[in-house]
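Let's practice the habit of predicting before peeking. Look at the sequence and jot down your guess about where helices and strands might fall. Then scroll down.
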Amino acid sequence: MADDSPRKGLGRGLSALLGDDDTDYAALDKVRAGRDVPIEHLRANPFQPRHRFGEEDQESLVASIREHGILQPILVRRVISEGEDAGSYEIIAGERRWRAAQEARLTRVPVLIRDFDDSEALEIAPEATRLDTLYDVCHNIAKLETFQIDGRPQQLCVHRKGATRAYPPGHPETPAPYRHVGQPVLVPGDMGRYSYVLVGTARAMRETFGSTCHGAGRRMSRRQATRVGDARRLLDELRARGIHVRAAGLATVAEERPEAYKDVADIVRIVHEAGVSTRVAQLRPLAVIKG
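Done guessing? Here is the structure:
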């Protein structure tokens, strides 16, 4: 028999936790009241990719908190630790309010405490931190494209294996939002270090059929990687650095350990210096999904 009861909490985002149109607001007021804790007992969310907030918006929030206090509790979870973080709370949603409260010189803040594990915290965090899909890209596909061959345009079937498209600024097949800067190039590294954003160039059109690298490549076989160390310990090390891993199993984690791959920074430097794509930004990992 199907379960027609409404889902609670996860999967519905913050509206399910903090109230929506179907909420019993009298009961919600009791939940929202939560409890006040010393502001120094809160810790930033390691899944939070935003470290800079708009100055004008933040100044307005600070002024509002000085006058009215924090009206909506900060969503947190307990930190399980015996060290200096013992008795503290990790922010799941509300980091802007916490930072503004510090600027407003508040000593205590209202919190709503939930016992989330890492997976649940990550499921909530993207909505709380406003993570959006900026650009989707496919690899290892063949496409019909037009290039200059011996001085005249010809339609070719271009199969990019171990590569990705890197069209230059102004190219008509580059998506309109990026056409003035060139095609975004997303170059993954490994799950413990960094990835890169590059942009396509005119030189790539002349020399590499509008293509550039799409990753670092392995330096260990999958079998070698599984013999290097304990996968559970690797997960603990990544978690301690604020990197959450969702994998099909421990064997997959072991196969994909960071040291199994070349340093993608070296690969990016080579294609940047060769002029077939331009380095734009280095990204740090927050979450890794391995099939």
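How did you do? The CA atoms of residues 50 and 129 lie 7 Å apart.
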